[in-house]
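To whoever is on call:

I kicked off a structure prediction for a single chain this morning and the downstream step that reads the tokens threw a length-mismatch warning. I double-checked the sequence; it's 311 residues and nothing unusual in it as far as I can see. Pasting both halves so you can look.
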Amino acid sequence: MTRKVGVIGMGHVGAAVAHHMVVDGVTDELVLIDTNDAKVTADATDFQDAMSNLPEHTNITVNDYSALKDADVVISAVGKISLQKDNKEHDRFIELPFTKNAVRDVSEKLRDSGFHGVLIDITNPCDVITMMYQKYTGFPKHRVIGTGTLLDSSRMRRAVSSKLKIDPRSVGGYNLGEHGNSQFTAWSTVKVLGRPVAEVAKERNVDLADLDEVARAGGYTVYHGKHYTNYGIASAAVRLTKVILSDARAELPVSNWNEEYQTYLSYPAIVGRDGVVEQDHLNLTDDEKEKLKASANYIKTRFDDTVASME
């Protein structure tokens, strides 16, 4: 069966996602879309120039929404990173004036294309934009997913593994809530060396609050160094895409619709070819439950305010 993926928005992130897919042979057909025709055409030509030195071949189509009709996955990487230039509060909502309008435009074109696969949102602010995509496309909630804290959980694992001097893949657990400032590390879910991380941290005099902040601020540490982030989020998006294409039914902390809070937020879900096929149920502490509720309320309020301002 032919695998087909679309990437909308070929800035730093979209280009990194597309490059990862071409190099790894993730998909047989790749549709690249951007409002800057010269840029997306140049990227496509660059990828094609690389083909003879790669183990896999990928057929590439440029700026054709109709080609998304039979795509398995479409990734929204639309954004305007220049708006982050003076963002001293490290607030992902600073891109919202641009991205909220882009969502309506892209949603209309996706509907018209006949696309009926799984939509993955990277565009910030991730949870609000993911919910806007679901609203304006009308796609089933289980087929609209945001990368959410899949990246933030990875940043947490990097922080823990660095402190304990182990491979980050040996750290389990999640960051939950908003892909933004109200997110938090659910330490009750984190295990390392076969034990709860809290036990290991106590023995080794490790401050988990400090590691939580390292995870939260990870993106801006990268941003201050090169004025954008791309590789970490690209790897998260590609991992999620692979899970969908292979119907892996993997448990991932992605932004998905939460019936209890009536909003999108990051919480572990089982993901497969049809998108979210099952939602997990964590035994969180009372403090973690309060943090999750606060994060959910923040996302929902910002979504309601944004939609109201557009109608």
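Update from on-call: the warning came from a stale cache, not from the record. Cleared it. Sanity check on the structure: DSSP finds nine helices and twelve strands in the chain.
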